[in-house]
Amino acid sequence: MTQCLLTVHAHPDDEASRGGATVAHYTAQGVRAVLVTCTDGGAGEVLNPAVTDDFTPERFVAVRSAELDASARNLGYSAVHRLGYRDSGMDGTAGGAEAFVRAPLDEAATRLARVIADERPDVVIGYGTNHTRDPHPDHIRANEVLTRRVDLLDHTPAVYHIAFSRRRHRALHQACVDSGVPSPYEGGLSAPPGAFDDEWITTLVDVTKGDAVERRLDALRSHVTQVPPASGWFALSPQQLRDAFPYEEYTRVGAAPREAVVHDLFTAPA
């Protein structure tokens, strides 16, 4: 039976910037990947100065939806599900009555549970509870909805939270310094210890095999309105990224912190 991996993300482009190489890694091995995107991304702004279109709100949502589909194809997703909520914005005031943060928790969890029940994934990936570096209200809500849905299923997949260690942050910053390119990671070095997830990481997925890193970068480029070609995401080449830090990091929900990490999302910690 084909293994299935399902990811839960808040907005279009999150699927590329958070764990995108992991999905590319597993789909190259024949794993079926399913993407759930909670909001339409409509509260965002055009961040690429090369895009000069004067979008209506409806057109902007449509463009971001098309970018999401293109990104999902690059990563190898077999299906994309949209929960149908409006983007709440960075301060949580956008989206009106249909904003994700205003949706009743059980209603949103039920929508997600229906998708998970239909797809029956072996592994589910979502966001954790540490939002020190990432306080977007939709990301916080995505964690709450994913956590609540556990009670609504008749099967229990392995659930992982995307993690980011200070070790990884430092390694990528140093690679930028060594290469003489501006480091998008420099500001994060002064973040407080609790901003990173080092002590909770249970699983490291090696994304150096094949073209997983290239496909993640291509997925990011699919989000033309959001990612300028000169973005810090592209400061390092794929090989430099692999050499600097060869893993994407996760915390398995319910697993105790451990010194010996696991290297496969489909393998339970001993």
TrEMBL record:
GO molecular function term, any single one: hydrolase activity, acting on carbon-nitrogen (but not peptide) bonds, in linear amides
Entry keywords, A to Z: Zinc
InterPro entries per the UniProt record, alphabetical: GlcNAc_PI_deacetylase-related, LmbE-like_dom_sf
Record keyword Zinc present: yes
Keyword set includes Ribosomal protein: no
Signal peptide: none
Gene3D superfamilies: LmbE-like
GO BP term, example: glycoside metabolic process
Protein name: LmbE protein
